[in-house]
Specification:
Jelly Rolls; 8 helices; 348 residues; alpha+beta; 6-stranded antiparallel β-sheet; 31% strand; 22 strands; binds 2,5-dihydroxybenzoic acid; single chain
């Protein structure tokens, strides 16, 4: 036995005795616990809507929305297979409702957001109020709010779902409950929450019925797009963020949801951003146009409705030949609240 192997054998024998008593040597794991910088387990990835759509329609022929409860194709990060994760903390999926179907009412502690992709007549009901979801709309289901969905027109309706499920799993704070009927009781007229909270005015004693989540549950694309176009006319785009506006909770000026941040980036025709990275992991979807992007060194040309992922601390940059609009969401708000959020802005 050489000197070295005998030392190693002695140490290993010690580690084995530690393990028997449910302990472990820190020095063997310290580098992994305290990395010099984040190295996300998630990979950059892109899902083409042209690939998703036919498979989604196949699922539509295979089972009803009611059978499935939610007929969704989960977008699995290829490095996190079987975990229902697009990023470390975010679940994403594409949900399909066929004309006349209902996705029955339930509620859960994870929060959900929707980014509407296609179909006329998609309806979601949240907390006793209905809204029509149109293409490009950003729609919110707050934690523990009853919600059911339907398609009341003649089209299949599809949207991107984003949930904070992996984060809630990590915190072991998941609850779920079924409603006693397919559809929840509607107690407010359409547009009620928008009138009270979404017109740059607030009730005299404003309080969100949804706790930490914004009281507005549909941010229509028509308005977001118009704001971005007008903002682009007023000033040069930011070198790293082009023209970006975030979805806001009007009650406190913060992000619209307590666990997920959402914003939309407008890339004017011909504009190219400089590289930027941040600790939050981002899911993005092209609302309009065509976006060439580099995410963690991978190049993707994103068409309308394509979804892509930029893992935390991966460099990202964007370019568009024609006016384009990119919906983005991430766990940034959580990082910020915990004092962990960082970004680095690279040179052009
Ligand atoms: O629409 O309520 O993609 O509960 C996953 C879980 C959608 C929903 C998902 C859900 C929903």
């Amino acid at each position: 036995m050489t000197m070295q192997t005998s030392t190693e054998a002695v140490r290993q024998e010690f580690y084995d005795r530690l393990a028997e008593k449910d302990m472990a040597p820190l020095w063997a794991v310290l580098k992994g616990l305290l990395p010099n910088e984040p190295r996300s387990k998630a990979r950059p990835h892109r899902w083409r809507y042209d690939d998703v759509r036919p498979l989604m329609m196949e699922a539509g022929a295979l089972l009803t929305a009611e059978e499935a409860e939610r007929r969704v194709l989960v977008l699995e990060n290829p490095a996190l297979k079987g975990m229902s994760r697009a990023t470390a903390t975010i679940y994403a999926g594409i949900q399909l409702i066929l004309p006349g179907e209902t996705a029955p009412a339930h509620r859960h502690s994870p929060s959900a957001l929707r980014f509407m992709l296609e179909g006329e007549g998609a309806i979601t009901a949240v907390g006793g109020e209905r809204t029509v979801m149109r293409r490009g709309d950003f729609v919110i289901t707050p934690s523990w709010a009853w919600h059911d969905h339907g398609a009341e027109g003649n089209d299949p309706c599809a949207w991107l779902d984003g949930l904070d499920v992996p984060l809630v799993q990590f915190l072991e704070a998941g609850f779920n409950e079924h409603y006693n009927d397919k559809n929840q009781a509607i107690i407010r007229p359409d547009g009620d929450s928008m009138a009270r909270f979404g017109m740059n005015m607030l009730p005299m004693r404003a309080q969100s019925p949804y706790g930490l989540t914004t009281p507005i549950f549909n941010y229509p694309y028509e308005r977001s797009r118009a704001a971005l176009v007008a903002a682009a006319a007023g000033a040069a785009p930011d070198k790293h963020e082009a023209v970006s506006l975030r979805y806001v909770n009007p009650l406190d000026g913060g992000w619209a949801m307590p666990t997920m941040s959402a914003w939309m980036m407008h890339l004017p025709a011909g504009f190219e951003t400089a590289p930027i990275r941040s600790t939050d992991g981002i899911v993005m979807c092209v609302a309009e146009g065509r976006v060439s992007t580099e995410l963690g060194g991978e190049r993707y040309d994103l068409e309308e409705r394509d979804v892509a992922v930029a893992p935390g601390w991966a460099w990202r940059r964007f370019r568009a030949e024609r006016d384009s609009f990119l919906f983005c969401f991430s766990d940034r708000v959580v990082h910020e609240k915990l004092g962990l959020w960082r970004e680095e802005r690279g040179a052009a």
